[in-house]
Amino acid sequence: MSALALGRWASRFKILHSQATLFRTSSSTYFFTSSTANKSEDPVRPEPPPIRVSLTESAGRGVFATRRIGAGDLIHTARPLVAHPLLSTTHSVCYFCLRKLKATSQTQAIQFCSNECEEQSMGFYNVERRANWSDYDNYCRMHGLKYPLLVKRLACMVISGVAAADSFDILQPESLSPVMVSEMEEGFNLLRGAFTKANICDEQVAFLTKTWYTSVLARIRINAFRVELAGGLYEDLLTSAAASVEAEAAVGNAVYMLPSFYNHDCDPNAHILWIENADARLKVLRDVEAGEELRICYIDASMDRDARQTLLSQGFGFQCNCFRCSSGD
């Protein structure tokens, strides 16, 4: 990714959205300070930044520690750029933040956990509720698809003016074969058709071409996270991770900016988790020294080597050469 593209991203998102502050020091290295860092008495001089985004030798961009980070420490938090509940959880979680609802309504298909979430959702929901999404949802349900729902939400945000059409350009895209692009055409036609039937003017949906649809979907497919809520206040990282698995707590999917820069390792030193909503928390699993790359595991690390390699190749398009895989574990 070019320095110009990184610069555009920095100015657009300012990373404050993910509760961190960005400092540019060179054309290829970006520093961040965590929202959990101690506040300096001197407001002009920030605390030493705990992480930087920089190019790696073999895996593109990566996230590196700029100082020692202790096991269990919170690195940073991140709010999603876009999130959407699973079709199976739409009636049981907040339509904006994916928090599980204490009570569900038999008459309201869409609910929010608070007035704040309802207000923030207007960035997409005022557009979304103008259209009939039954055909689009049925298409996703029939084919077992979840990521087109994120494309729909982003498209609504672009139409309403709260997001730019090129918001996801900074993210690494999946390499799509002609067959894969062809298979996406039905989803594109249904999405475009829903807006047309809702009388959304052509000028507002001019960005929504097949190229845009496939480009966004290619980025979402390898950058989206499955949001699994641990629930409760778990101070112990392993306990919270286990709780989310045991509860089968997947509630939706989300795309983040900074977490998308973390590379994979089958024996990771960092972990992403969700407690009560789609706001992500990045923590370290063991002591990390300054200059060390922070890596998370994209899949279930308990699988055997062959299963991990297959899933990473098919789902993320790369062969893992981490120490664990190289040693045959």
From TrEMBL:
Full protein name: SET domain-containing protein
GO cellular component: nucleus
Signal peptide residues on this chain, from the entry's feature table: none
InterPro entries per record: H3K4_H4K5_MeTrfase, SET_dom
Organism: Carya illinoinensis (Pecan)
Domain named SET: residues: 49-299
